[in-house]
Amino acid sequence: MEPGEARNALSQLRRGALEFCVLALLRNGERYGFELVRTLSDVDGMVTSEGTIYPLLTRLRKEELVTTFWRESESGPPRRYYRLTDAGDRALTDFTTEWARFRDAVDSLLAARRRS
Amino acid sequence: MIAMQSHPLVEDYLGRLEAAAAGLPADRRAELVADIREHLDDALRGVDPGDEVAVRNAIERVGAPEEIVEEAAGPRPAQPTPHGRFEILALAMIAVGGLLLPVLGWLVGAVMVATSRVWTGAEKLRGLAPLLVGPIVGAIVVIAISAAPAGSGHDGAGGLGTAEIAAIVIWVASGLASAGYLAARMRASGPRGG
Question: How do residues A49-97 score in pLDDT, each as one tens digit?
């Protein structure tokens, strides 16, 4: 396998998992865009371009997994906040269960010893 | 107060983002640019506007406009799978192969269909069923007509009897039925993509 193939596979996986990471960050209450994006981007290996998270947030709002509202900020113009909906909460719960199964399955296969 | 202007480097970046997003619907584009503007304003809050390195770093973290727009545009529609020559040949063998090479032609066609990845397993089963059932029905017809007393179909002079003609018609029809069904499924599943 080319090294590029592993990178491509991981980039696809990351893309799929990212939206649930966003939902997970909203589990304990609403956050505004910058706060959300910086938190994700500070996790090593999660996001390469902060800007790409905003289209993802738009998509999540269209799918009604999050809602948005504006709130006054103490230092500057009002900010757009994101909040988890009930549907978003259910999607997150489902993903959390399935992800654990998937992760364990992949780990067990990857950890299987090579027969010599 | 006039609309708030961000740092010149930020304005320059947002201009490039807006240009890159020209293909998006106007409301999506406006929202995207507003989101990124708000993000950069937050990122640069408290940063000295003269600190050009800090401003450039913040922009760098946001990423290339093209990359962001690509994400906003969503996944590209899947490329339709070209119907390979292999599948066309397989269908031709099933449709008429049996006439050119009795039995063997159909057999080759059936094996080709079975190994193709264009059809699902169920489609292959349904598609090849007439080809399997046809010869059996044909054989039964031949036996039934031959066994009938005073077979009026036998002219005895070496021409084809009713039984043989019926069998050939059934065999040809079953080959055409198989090929027709598989061709229809091939077209239906084409744009599904890989």
Answer: 999 999 999 999 999 999 999 999 887 788 999 999 999 999 999 999 9
Give the closest residue to A48 by CA, choosing from B68, B182, B147, B31: B68
Distance CA A61, CA A66 (A): 5
Residues 69-98 of B with CB under 8 A from A: 71-72, 74
Q: Please state the pTM of the whole predicted model.
A: 0.60
Segment (H or E) for A70: strand A66-71
Q: H or E stretch including A80?
A: strand A79-84
Q: What is the per-residue pLDDT across B69-101, written as a single tens digit (0 to 9) for each?
A: 999 998 765 555 556 788 888 888 888 887 778
Q: To probe the interface with A, which of B17, B24, B61, B67 has the most A CB atoms within 10 Å?
A: B61
| Cα dist from B53 to A31, B10, B39, B45, B47, whole Å | 28, 12, 17, 14, 10
Question: Could you report how far apart the first and last alpha carbons of chain B are, in Å?
Answer: 55
Task: Identify the CA nearest to B109 among candidates B123, B88, B130.
Answer: B88
CB of B66 less than 8 A from some CB of A: no
